[in-house]
Specification:
2 copies of one chain form a homodimer. Chain A has 14 helices and 25 strands. Chain A is an alpha+beta fold.
């Protein structure tokens, strides 16, 4: 059977992914090492994802703000684990002027910075410095901040959306009076992420704590939401960190308590990024292209007038009337009245993953009907029904699609988690090419023998099992 | 009379502005040369400004996208005027790793980029390169793109919101098949800005074309919206450029026409930034702090329970009931039930410019009334009225405030524009300390004598008069 994307997922998942991105016109590699350009259709998806995350962030009492792009090297250097974690991928600004010298435009030697800056890889340090001034008394706590910004971590093996040198994200930074509150909040934000992935992205997650080996540079506890891609690999879709007093002590975030004593605060940070888009695409798409959950589809419905004759104008009017009705009930709809051939239009919107594809032709116009196909179910779902029936039920249908997509992934994931009771069993599973997550006693993975398996099979510890933290999930990962 | 902000505008406008920013908790200088941190209250204003601009941009058929932060030096170098305009303020990235050498964290000499990157000061070049690939045929035109991003222009004399090394903005980049369309679009986007400044920011603008001396680096025509601050100085609040074929030729943006021939496109760019916030604050605020137009006020109404006795809890409940009613009709409202003293709360929200301040006390609660004061009119507008009357009329009142604020600035501006018929007359006006805009024949300002005045009085040509382009507006400016 011919598919819109070749190779298929089965044939070569990694190439399929690349071609999917191109076919759906989502993004491209930029002419800047490791960076990408997110094209309008991709960005429209991100805006929907961002706005729905932002609503949740605000509802949790967090305030958005905006901190500088550049970080003085000196700040960055204040927390030892943090600098060790990020120094090797830091983009460094050393000059503030260009000059034409011998016909070549280059950094002006006379405009060299005495202290270089790095482009933020994350903002614990610069926000920590601000918090040290903004927090004075217990009355200022908790202080909960977030920013939606670009960050940069130099990437040697870039991959669109999954690993890019520059990426867009939200980074939340909260400070509390006690460790209990901070830790509880770090876990609460993780729950928020899990709920978001479920209800907005239609993706079930495995949520849990990272093992010490996989913690964020400068955290006491790192919590993560892990997703299972169709090739069985893990994608870390969001993390939330209990930073203890590391940054509070490095930056002097102290508050005057009710007892009149100065005490260090307890900070957390939590983030999700455009990386989530990679997960969204790899979880739901098929060999014909993108499949978008209605909550993040730029167009939830596309109407394609099938124009075999001279009634083009009338047909477009009919389409636009239906579209108006849908807009009135807040359905995102597009009438594709471009001058492409109808089959090309159809394939264009299949590849772009529009949840509901509506075709109308001569016959439909006469009958006051339309023909609708669900992207997630494909051809078998094709139905002809009266326009009014469609309009009345379309919101419910979109809700149903959202629900079905989540359930279908949940079902698939069940076969993607294998119980393992020994390293021997793990090795033979990996050797036989078994994909997915493996659940195993954590103490089995804290020895040299396991480290050898890590190297050999490129697996990693994803997170401890939330139900029983003596178990850990391991998998290959993006 | 004691004022919340000292010095007053009259005493020292520039210091007043600095203190206003602090008093309203909008932003602060960052520990990064020339950069600022926008604090939560300032950022909430920006989000409202941004979202309302974004709606207009999308309604005009423009698609948002996201291009990389870094620009290869080589790209930047392709348009001669452009590079001349921006090279002297470019932040340059030269290394991609840090290393601890002799106990000092510094750029790793082994991770030096062979081609340095600059942090985008604007994105004509990197978007031009993309357009050269995305535009193939006349069917691809017009292509209209926009991005909301941070940019960087190294600033030696920074000033919060007005001039900062890093700032946030939207930059639109459109490409057309003909010069007529491009030029018309550049002027259309300017009209959009003018409409936005009027209806969202309540600021009347002087819109017109820049003189050749003041054009954007690489433009054939630059159009601008200029605002008059309370000290008579000009603020350029937005610009729109007809870039001719400069960038199309530098980057090879060509399309196959209906005639089968390859033709260069015609590009435009248009932008507004966080600089608009500086204008918003300097146009509307008074000696007691910020005055915000309701359209961009994070809280349009603040309710302050006056808690002299033990009825705090009941009073807060009463306040929250009113707030609920307002939320139901989409009014942004806050109940300030913090444990500050009532007069301190009042002054806090006066300084932050909340359009309507509602006080409720024992008496109001018993009577089912409230006392409301308009921020723009001050004490004289204080009225006590039944809760239901207030709720029924609050939307109209907010609309009225928005309207009155615009009209009041418009009225004030009338006395801020002086007709000048000779350079002698101009000099004596400037010498006498006259503030505001001066309207003068353009040919009087294109000679050495005028250039001397420019130097002596730090004035500049703001724009040609749209009604009669043989006249130019000149003024001191931010």
């Amino acid at each position: 059977m011919k598919t819109a994307i070749t190779p298929t997922r089965q044939e070569n998942f990694s190439e399929w992914y690349q071609n999917l991105i191109t076919a759906a016109d989502l993004a491209e590699n930029a002419p800047v090492r490791g960076c990408m350009t997110i094209k309008p259709y991709g960005w429209a998806i991100w805006e929907l994802m961002r706005d729905q995350m932002d609503k949740r962030i605000k509802a949790s009492g967090v305030l958005n703000a905006n901190f500088p792009l550049l970080i003085p090297i000196d700040f960055f250097n204040k927390e030892a684990e943090h600098v060790a974690g990020f120094a090797k991928e830091a983009a460094v600004v050393t000059h503030y002027r260009l000059k034409m010298i011998d016909g070549v435009l280059q950094p002006d030697p006379e405009a060299k910075l005495t202290e270089p800056y790095i482009i933020r890889p994350t903002s614990e340090t610069i926000i920590g410095e601000a918090m040290s001034r903004w927090v004075q008394s217990y009355r200022d706590l908790p202080l909960k901040l977030n920013q939606w910004v670009n960050v940069m971590r130099w990437e040697m093996r870039p991959r669109l959306f999954l690993r890019t040198s520059e990426f867009n994200w939200q980074e939340g930074h909260n400070v509390f009076a006690t460790h209990e509150e901070a830790n509880e909040d770090a876990r609460k934000m993780l729950d928020m992420y899990e709920e978001y992935m479920k209800n907005v992205l239609a993706i079930p997650c495995i949520a849990g704590e990272k093992t010490p080996e996989e913690r964020f540079a400068g955290a006491d506890h790192t919590y993560t939401v892990e997703q299972i891609m169709q090739d069985g690999k893990a994608l870390q879709a969001g993390t939330s960190h209990d930073l203890g007093q590391h940054f509070a002590k490095s930056f002097g975030i102290q508050y005057l308590g009710t007892d009149g004593k100065l005490t260090y605060g307890w900070t957390t940070s939590w983030g999700t990024s455009t990386r989530m888009m990679g997960g969204l695409f790899m979880v739901h798409s098929d060999d014909d292209g993108l499949v978008l959950p209605p909550m993040v589809a730029p167009y939830q419905v596309v109407i394609i007038p099938i124009t075999r004759d001279e009634n083009v104008k009338q047909l477009n009017e009919f389409a636009n009337q239906i579209a108006e009705q849908l807009k009135n009930i807040d359905v995102r709809v597009l009438v594709d009245d471009s001058d492409m051939r109808s089959p090309d239009k159809m394939w264009k919107w299949i590849k772009r993953g529009v949840p509901l594809r509506v075709e109308i032709g001569e016959r439909e116009m006469t009958d006051g009907t339309l023909t609708v196909t669900r992207r997630d179910l494909g051809k078998s779902s094709k139905t002809t029904l009266p326009v009014s029936t469609f309009v009345d039920s379309v919101k419910d249908t979109l809700t149903q699609i959202q629900h079905d997509m989540f359930e279908s992934v949940k079902q698939r994931n069940k076969n993607m988690i294998t119980e393992i009771s020994s390293l021997q069993e793990l090795e033979s599973a990996l050797e036989s090419g078994k994909i997915g997550f493996f659940r195993i006693k954590y103490d089995l993975t804290t020895n040299d023998e396991f480290d050898k398996l890590i190297e050999k099979y490129k697996i990693s510890r994803r997170c401890l099992d939330r139900q029983d933290s003596s178990y850990v999930f391991i998998a290959k990962s993006y």
